[in-house]
Amino acid sequence: MAGLMMGLMLEVLALGFLYACLWFSLSIILKRNDIADIAWGIGYILLCAYLFWTQDLSDLAILMYALVTLWGLRLSLHIGLRNSKKPEDFRYNNWRKEWGKAFYLRSFLQVYLLQVLILLVVSTPLIIVSEFGSNIINVYSIVLSILWLIGFMWQALADYQLTQFKKHRTDKEQVLQTGLWKYSRHPNYFGEILMWWSIGLIAVPLAWGWIGLISPLLISYLLLNVSGVPMLEKRYEGNSAFEAYKKKTPAVFPKFRFKD
């Protein structure tokens, strides 16, 4: 069984390499690397479609494919619409300047190929459920699906509130501190983490299911320590409004306060 799972992961890795090459080529044509953020969600949609058509189906597998596909569709659409009328995201633009002559090589390796490797690790619960899925949807998986839905709605609402705030603010130094953003500085990341922990835990009762916990652990680590909170907040260094907001508001996990 473990051999079958490893074989499937190698298949996904090979297809992922081609996927990375495709998006890297498109980034050269469009002259913007932030399309990698769109590729992230679409990659999971295509993976779910591949597993749906090539593996034996179970009720639990169909449930997980549906949840991940819904997440990928919303995220990719949101990022695509957000970036369509804007210049390249500042993080990728900074790398473009920093990498200089090595830009193309480092873009392929550190943006697109690395993304595929991370996708493979994060998709471990999908691989597990495709191989060892159950036809029994029990209370455990239903409760986790409800938690996933809460995370999905939390992230979607946080993204909507931020979009509306940026559309109507009069000063770029202003900081959103209402709605879900009153309770944490990155409520969208909280929703993301809640969704992936729900996905990982759904797979735990299956054979080798505990390995799937590497998925939410990696997502949590990246958002909290690498590409999420630290990278975004570095942009606000020196912003007095943000510094005051930071002192009273937790980074990701909400602290409900009803009086300022």
Précis, in short:
The protein is mainly α and 260 residues long.
Write the layout of secondary structure elements.
Layout: H1 2-30, H2 35-54, H3 59-83, H4 90-99, H5 103-122, H6 124-132, H7 139-168, H8 187-203, H9 214-225, H10 229-234, H11 240-248
Tell me about this structure.
The protein has helices at 2-30, 35-54, 59-83, 90-99, 103-122, 124-132, 139-168, 187-203, 214-225, 229-234, 240-248. It has one domain (2-248). The N and C termini lie far apart (55 Å). α3 (59-83) packs parallel to α7 (139-168) and α8 (187-203) packs antiparallel against α9 (214-225). It is mainly alpha-helical and 260 residues long. It is 72% helix and 0% strand.
